[in-house]
Amino acid sequence: MTETVSIREVGLRDGLQLVETYLPTETKLSWCKEEAAAGFTEIEVTSFVPPSILPQFADAAVVLGGAQEIGGLLPSVLVPNLKGAIRALDAGAKKISFVLSASEAHNQSNVRCSTDASLTMFRELLEERKARELQDTVQIAGAIATSFGCSIQGHVPETRIIEIAAAMASAGADEVNLADTVGYANPRQVSRIFEQADTVVGPVPLAAHFHDTRGMGLANVVAAYDTGVRRFDASLGGLGGCPFAPGASGNIATEDCVYLLENLGVNTGIDLSALLRLRAKLTDWLSGEEMSGKLLLAGPAKTFAPNCPVVMTGTHT
Fold first, then answer.
1. Looking at the domain assignment, is residue 117 inside a domain?
2. Active-site residue, 32 included
3. CA 271, 174, 57, 152 torsion: positive or negative?
4. How many domains are there within the chain?
5. Which of 152, 182, 243, 248 is the most exposed place for a label (fewest CB within 10 A)?
């Protein structure tokens, strides 16, 4: 039986937070519709942060509302604090990723509080969900930034990552995502940390978020997959990075990640041809912005045999 994985597109959030071009709301929703038609079932569509800090997401509620009208798609959102999480709940979000950093220095730079204070807010978010009786309709994921190192602090103790993962799972997280925010991870480190995390989160699924800042992103995907991870984040065209950490550029490119996993015999459920057509459009939408990814330029190999051969047509409405 063919293994399956879930790839979540994060370009609309992680990708757009680092570009100078403002992408219009209608274009963001076109992006969502085309990726949903290509087989994506979850897209991180926006972030609930102050527009004064990231103007790109001033339309967060509108984008979320429009994305929720796309059939078969779960639009998720990212929040860095309780205030943003409350805004996301009020806007009707069905999946909220609450991010904090295992690096104290990065957490202070990102949200100006300690990691423990962020953990307290995460627990308060889960209590707020319970108070609203939304446990069965709203998913809350915990995302741990700088899980593999920090460009501000440097080394991040692995025991700290595992401690935070355990705390999030025991608090009631529906998912725990380990993120290589600054592209420091290597495959052996990825295997070691995910194996340790798996022993403390119980039945809560683990997800992986890798940056390709130093060319290690796809190797780290393989390492995480081999430890049992079946949920991965990726950004179309390799867009993105963290604006609050020096040198944190470049997510793994969605198209390259799909191609990698399909080549390994894993079913992603993604129509790669449709995805590459969208990738070409992204170049026009964000003309002048730096992108990465090899597949658009080289194309699939003649020997490539996708595990999702059915070409999906039409758009979701």
1. yes
2. no
3. negative
4. 1
5. 243
